[in-house]
Amino acid sequence: ASTNMSANDGDITIVSVSVHDVRFPTHLDNVGSDAIHPDPDYSCCYVILHTSSSSTSSSSPSSSSPYEGHGLSFTIGRGTEVVVACAKALVPQLINKTLRQITGDFPSFYRSLTRPEKGVIHLATAALLNALWDLWAKVEKKPLWKLLVDMTPEQLVSLIDFRYITDAVTPSEALALLSRHSPEQKKEREERMMKGGYPAYTTSAGWLGYSDEKIRRLCREAVAEGYTHIKIKVGADLEDDIKRCKIIREEIGYDRYLMVDANQRWDVGQAISWMERLACFRPLWIEEPTSPDDVLGHATIAKALAPHNIGVATGEMAQNRVIFKQLLQANAISFCQIDSCRVGGVNEILSILLMAAKFGVPVCPHAGGVGLCELVQHLSIFDYICVSGTLENRIVEYVDHLHEHFEHPCIMSKNPVAYMPPTAPGYSSTMKQESMEKHLYPGGPVWTALKEKGL
Questions:
Q1: Least enclosed by CB within 10 Å: which of 84, 131, 438, 444?
Q2: d(CA 208, CA 306)
Q3: pLDDT above 80 (res 54)
């Protein structure tokens, strides 16, 4: 895929990369608490690509560039320093590379960066690749979703590493999936997005550490704002889950959707029996019922819960496209939950979107955390315009936390609630400098003050 950069931009060269451990003390308010993580601190490995420009219109061979690429990989606090260390270890692979070199043969660069495609090193890869995509979109002066939408099907296919997934989708099949949408159809969908946005659901009412009274209040607020889908955390205590589901149904009624999320808490049999007890509350899906690596376990759960009209949703912790391939091949999921920071950046997500489209499984991304809402909105808008072509059974998670720390926070409409397409160039991943510096771990002023207080 050609970058199509203007002559004045010249060759954008990556000259240095800074990597930061940024953490927000969300444990103080029980934000993010679930059956596995009772006290998370929403955090990220935050990467900044610094560049120089060799302009064809300048007599100077090189000069400082106004472009920076900002990327991140989300964590929940402990262990962020390991992701940071891995990202720093990968930095030499980017130094003195030009944007043209990278994007001109992205699969080759992707393979040079991704070894192995799982674990902490893949999280670090995601942060670096997200920064590269942010840089590319800024150079093109487009929001990332628009950068993708404006590419031809051939250009999009050329960005993907199809190794390990040709038994699920081949390059020619991917090209056919993308080519079935006419320019007129894509233009119409883009206009629809600009007018109405992409539908969203909320998890803000359902953290496991919240009191009954707080859940009721937040449910009422969500209904007033126009939410039609609300998700809660489950899995720690069955009787408590029954009580909380009852409270939420009392507040939102049965004409709105309820989803439940166990965050990998259960064994397979336990997931089935637990959800059979919650079936009377008519949940749309059970999210992450068991280990994210247990493809056949998810398939067993999906088959057992199908008579109850409960779908299985997972993917936020699936470590690469191979796991998604197997989940789809095994009919193990009814909803595919990509995460903008878990797999290998936009390139690998493109392959997952195409596999989901081939298997007819709706993509309902995971979001929240630090910057995940900002990033994933781009991916869903592109998916609708160029891949799926429909909003049926599709909705994106929204959590109302930490958006104020970003230069271009996501913009939400109300009644109905939807993500409005970003207009600023880039991947919406640029954190405010002041916020980053305050929340650096362990030496930033926020953490220094908490340590002094013993918190």
A1: 438
A2: 26
A3: no
Question: What whole-number distance in Å separates Cα of residue 229 and Cα of residue 224?
Answer: 12
Alpha helices in 46-200 (DSSP H): 80-90, 99-104, 106-113, 119-139, 144-149, 153-157, 171-179, 183-196
- The count of C-alpha atoms lying within 13 angstroms of the C-alpha of 253, restricted to the half-sphere facing its C-beta, is 7
Closest CA to 318 of 132, 119, 161, 114: 119
The DSSP code sequence of 57-85 is T-SSS-EEEEEEEEEEEEE-STTHHHHHH
Predicted pLDDT at 236: 94
Tell me how far apart the alpha carbons of residues 106 and 81 are, in angstroms, rounded to a whole number.
Answer: 28
Q: How far apart are the first and last CA of the chain?
A: 50
pLDDT of residue 393 exceeding 70: yes
Whether the model clears a pTM of 0.90, i.e. scores above it, the answer is: yes
3-state secondary structure labels for all residues of 209-265: CCCHHHHHHHHHHHHHHCCCEEEEECCCCHHHHHHHHHHHHHHHCCCCEEEEECCCC
- Token readout for 445 is 């002023």
**CB within 8 Å of 282: residues ≥ 6 apart:** 254, 258, 309
On average, the pLDDT of the chain sits at: 94
User: d(Cα 33, Cα 37) in Å, to the nearest integer?
Assistant: 6
Residue 8 predicted with pLDDT over 60: no
How does pLDDT run across 110-145, given as a tens digit for each residue?
999 988 999 999 999 999 999 999 999 999 999 999
Whether residue 34 has pLDDT greater than 80: no
431 pLDDT higher than 80: yes
